[in-house]
TrEMBL record, chain A:
This is Cellulose biosynthesis protein BcsQ. InterPro entries: Cellulose_synthase_operon_BcsQ, DNA_Partitioning_ATPase, P-loop_NTPase. Signal peptide: none annotated.
Automatic annotation (TrEMBL), chain B:
Residues 46-69 are annotated as: Disordered. This is Uncharacterized protein.
Amino acid sequence: MKRIVITGIQGGVGATTVAANLTIALHSIEQKAHAIDMNPTNFMRLHFSMDPNNNDGWMLRRYHQEPWQQAGYQNHHQIPFVPFGELTEAQYQQQLTALQQQPMTLLNNISPENKEAESKSDWQIILLPEITSLQNFHRPLLDEADLVICVVRPDIQSYLSLQKNRHYQALHEKHNIKLLMNAFNANSEVSRDLQLVIKHEYQEMIIPTLMHFDTAVPEAVANLTSVLEAAPYSQAAQDYRSFAFWCLTHVNQEIMVTPNV
Amino acid sequence: MPNRLSDDISGLFKAYSVDQPEYEELSELERYQKVKQKWQGLKATTNPADSFKNTNNENVSITGNKEKP
């Protein structure tokens, strides 16, 4: 199984949107993929047509000591995903403490028990909280990822976070992170300029697919669907298909170069 | 008799009301250097690749050129 872990340089950069739409875009190019939401904001489900009043999720199942897989859902196109779930503050803090004490639990839970039987062509897309909110139990997921993507925006906040954020620096020292530029607005001077600066200074890390700002994305989420389903010919849908192709070729290339990893 | 080439170009400029007749094509590096001076938030920052060259002799660059073990 090929595992992609997605985080954001800060909150609000669009990491949830990227993770959900990448999963759906991989399906559109005949790949089997599933998504797991590990961000407590629990918004990935909105891209998968889940009722916002449904509080179910793997964290809630864990709290009730039930198998986390029972929180698995499918959207209208049979694309599987696992929401985080809605917990009370007390429930959440209890689970957080338990996970911090056993940091390998998450990785062990979501890894196939029978490695021989697992399909090497399957994709697992994991959404983590933004970099500043990562916990010790997220580290094993990052260690075992085939690809770690950090979503940034072409704005001064993302740029300064890349330069100065100690959480990002610590992550960068341990992992070969790729940066995905999201919500690029060609009509905005500052967006064009910051895209140029980030691309110039972080060229080795930048994913060549540029994700354009497109109002079709928030419109699709407001209708509880993904942009690939709601507006398949939009700029955003085309960007996500290109991004999925890039992931396919990049991860396969890495696996071919290092066959035993 | 047909116009000379230079007349044609002048005619084109007039027709399209070019705002910046002294426009010069910039390379990406020149554009980058101009942009770094344009915004206050960028002026005080440094290119991490440059600071790497000046201060670090290890085989790991901050722009992601990690050498595989």
